[in-house]
UniProtKB/TrEMBL annotation:
Gene3D superfamilies: Tetratricopeptide repeat domain (1.25.40.10). It comes from the Eukaryota. The keyword Repeat applies. PPR repeats lie at residues 50-84, 150-180, 186-220. Keywords: Repeat. It holds the Pfam family PPR_2. InterPro entries: PPR, PPR_rpt, TPR-like_helical_dom_sf. This is Pentatricopeptide repeat. The keyword Repeat applies. NCBIfam families: PPR (TIGR00756). The lineage of its organism: Eukaryota, Viridiplantae, Streptophyta, Embryophyta, Tracheophyta.
Amino acid sequence: MELGFQVLAHLIFCGVELCEHLDSQLLELYCKLGCVEVSSKLFEKMSERNVLSWTSMMDMYYGLGDYKEAVTLYYVMIDEGIRPDHFVFPKVFKACSELKDYRAGKDVYDYIYDYMSCIGFEGNASVKRSFLQTFANCGRTDIARPVTPDQVTWNSVIAGYVQNGQLIETFKYLKELSDAEDYIPNVVSWTALITGYEKNGYSSEALHLLRSMLIKRVRPNSITISSVISACLLLNMAKRSMAIV
């Protein structure tokens, strides 16, 4: 198999013409293998690059940790008039998130709402979750607030506030949500809050939230339980410290 890949790579570097369908298949193969040099050469010589070709290249660079190159490819793709699909946006948002590049993430966000809303991209759950997580990681959860509310956006915004230690903002947002008739906190919402309090040193408050969660008959998951155990350990350590003093 390795010899076969070497022969194919040699043909590519020698400039042997391949049909478009074979080009795309080979590009996807070498991108998945992380062969940057061969993939780049094949990509450059392709007579026609479709959205799948661009996606393969972005996936490769993202998988290799070269997030900047993945974002750069997105910009070049847009400049060449290739319209992204719902597989492209989450990957680009994740790359922006890894770079903590708020401006690039905002560019992608604006593109979706300016050019893609007519075909329903702003309602795609995967896309919404991705840009909310990106802005949260950049400390700009507020930018994503205007989107149409649903369980995905509620949980993502809550998780974003908690991730950035914005506990006051979290409660303000929950107060707003309490007025929404269709808002019902689920295990993701509760766990985000409990974990946030535990991570920020508010162990007692985290346990109070667990009690409220159980009263509402929401079953904890493994992440909830892990945070509760950590909170209990911290409280126990604090009590021991007080006893020593």
